[in-house]
């Protein structure tokens, strides 16, 4: 293989760099004949020719090359010292900058530790610092238009669907990567429809939060608020679990929800069966009766399906459900539980209030009957009605579902119409 050395080219021999000083070109040709025998030819100016016999040492060729090479000039000692000083100066500046960054980081850590310690030991002087600013990261678009009919616990109504829309300015879509691999998730939210939210802005000593609330399973009996899942709490924060049906862009499709439409969401976390499902967990005896709030049967009137089909032409455009039949199955699942409040079950004639324009509204009582307030007798002067004569209303996706329930717990769904909520 030929090698060409031209003017100003360099070559390294024995670890030293040399510069070709001859203006002519040397061509080094090597034609291997065998492993132990080589014939090497060195040509210079095509006039002088050296041949190396096969029995001579090929290293003689190196000396012939060295005779035409001269070492490159080395940098002066003064320039070398200047470069060394510059390198030392740069290394020193880099170290000072690194030390400064470490000191700043340690200072931030100490400040954060001091702030956490101060917040963990609230006093009268720093009471305003014990508030943590939080804002919703998303909002729920649920099939439950009002609190009335919203399940009291999650997963009781498997067909109850909702979409969780995230605020893109706070939650980038990449935050949801990997969530679809879980079957369920926890949702932390705010009880935004509580009738006593104004108490949160009052002085804690004047807010007068009730220590006990009424519990539906105790038929109006009272229990400490922290022994229940009442929405009326010193901090109205709720926790629920839902099934993840799909993750699409900036939204999650959930099922089995117990969330009312418009619920602000603070956070979501994946459900982990190995630590979230506790084997051997116990509950009080008053929670052991599973049939207390279950109705005997749910049936539909003859003309209900056709009426629903007519309403579906408008309501179905933005529905979470694919067909009127699936929506009717949702109604049946919701009404398979007695969604009436304790006061409605005990005094059914108080369940409806008639306004000046003739519209029927649900009672002003909390439908979950958790809030410990004295029950006002709106219908004390009305004649007593049997439970089967009272028409109750359930609003789902803006559709007003009318039904009756007798003393034996048999529910008859009579009709459905488009509510004012959907028309708006």
From TrEMBL:
Top-level lineage group: Eukaryota
Alphabetically ordered keywords of this record: S-adenosyl-L-methionine
Family: Belongs to the tRNA methyltransferase O family.
Protein name per UniProt: TsaA-like domain-containing protein
Domain TsaA-like: 134-280
Family matches, as SUPFAM superfamilies: YaeB-like (SSF118196)
Keyword Transmembrane helix listed: no
